[in-house]
Amino acid sequence: MIVLLITILFIIFLLLIFKKSRFNIVYLISSILLSVVAFNFDPIKAYISNGNYTDLYRFYEVLDSTRLLGWEYISNHPDYKSLFIARIYVYLSSFFRINGFLPAITCLIVYGVIFYIIYKFGQKTKCNKSTLILVSLFFLITINFRSVITNIRNPIVFCIFFFLMYIEFVEQKYKLLCWIGYILLCFMHQVALFLIGLRLLMLLYNKYSGKIINIVIILWSFLSQYAIQKVSALTSIPYFKALAMKTQFYSGDVNELRETNLIMIAVIKIILFICLLLYFNYSCNEEIKNKYKKIYEFSLVLICFNIGSYPNYHLFIRLPDLLTYFMLIFIILIFGNKQNNINYNEFKLKKKNFLYGLLVKSEIYFTIIIYFIYYFFSYQYGVLCY
After folding, report:
1. Which domain holds residue 53?
2. 341 bridge partner residues
3. Could you report the per-residue pLDDT of 32-75, keeping only the tens digit for each?
4. What is the pLDDT of residues 243-271, one digit of tens each?
5. Is this entry keyworded Ribosomal protein (predicted)?
6. In 277, 312, 340, 362, which residue has its Cα 20 to 30 A from 327's Cα atom?
7. What contacts 118, CB < 8 A, 6 or more positions away?
């Protein structure tokens, strides 16, 4: 925990002393430093010595067995049999003699990609330095580092999915390749199937159907598990069998102990995102709103999906990490460049509107503080040992 805290403080120091034009160097250094921290985490010591089990312990067992038994072992493993992308990722990772390369590479992918998007979008929108520091801090603190380096597949899917959405909706490039990417993600982790379902719904989304779609998505969890289990019962395809098992895991038993703190911080992030979207829709000019209409609409769908996933405990507490990535876009759009606002000088003079913007920014800082306290002063980062 102390190692991670020192690393983050050093990254913040670099952001403060470097010019905005050199933030690409800072982001590269940051990604490498965090990967080094991930590389040195010892899940075996955490479990054997301290009794703190993480999924990375299981990944290390799979890596050791794959080195010994080869491709045939990983191909027949129940967790990877129907997921050929995940199978290839773990198999290639097994060529490294040290298991720590798996979380290190995963960390480099996740933080590297998101920092890249922050930098590119900041350049695209001519974002000021203070806002870039704010979004970088928001990302560093509110993303669960432990989850990134121990869950492996789920964080990669969230990260790459957001990257593809950014390319398709913000850069408006390579649409076909993005769709191929969406499909391939389904073979990294089954959660991608839910995300591609949301993307498909966007094909039907307009100002008339949007409200209906959002309501249906909020209610989705009451139907999804039943539907998937029926499909899995009617087919012998391993992928759908695995999907049903994952859905059951995400839902959890009704008597399962649910950690209230995790639910509460997830709710805090959902509320913040709703406020950001409301303020974006209220403060930004029509040109900006039209330009980023698709990413705005998908963000609404994603929020509804997260709210609707409440009965699915594990999904509900994991989705806010994906929300964070989309929030970065809107924080930059709202606060990064005054030209994005409606008649900025006149707008700022209106006390009510100005105070609302101040309230939203205060909520961002409040969220950062709450997540910092929870992650660094609870078992979340307390399990990290080296």
Report:
1. 1-383
2. 284
3. 999 999 999 999 998 987 788 999 999 999 999 999 999 999 99
4. 556 555 554 444 445 678 899 999 999 99
5. no
6. 312
7. 27, 132, 135, 136, 139, 328, 332
Give residue 33's pLDDT: 98
Nearest Cα to 189, choosing from 112, 131, 250, 266? 250
What the block records as the tokens of 312 is 């699915």
Structure tokens at 77: 């493993």
Q: Which amino acid, residue 335?
A: F
Closest CA to 99 of 28, 51, 149: 149
Question: Do residues 141 and 372 make contact, with C-beta atoms less than 8 angstroms apart?
Answer: yes
Query: Is 165 in contact with 117 (CB distance < 8 Å)?
Result: no
The rounded distance, in Å, linking the Cα atoms of 88 and 380 is 29
The answer to whether the CB of 341 falls within 8 A of the CB of 286 is: no
* CA gap 200, 150 in Å, rounded: 30
Residue of 168, 170, 174, 215 lying closest to 196 (CA atoms): 168
Distance in Å from the first CA to the final CA of the chain: 9
How many residues are listed for the chain in this entry? 386
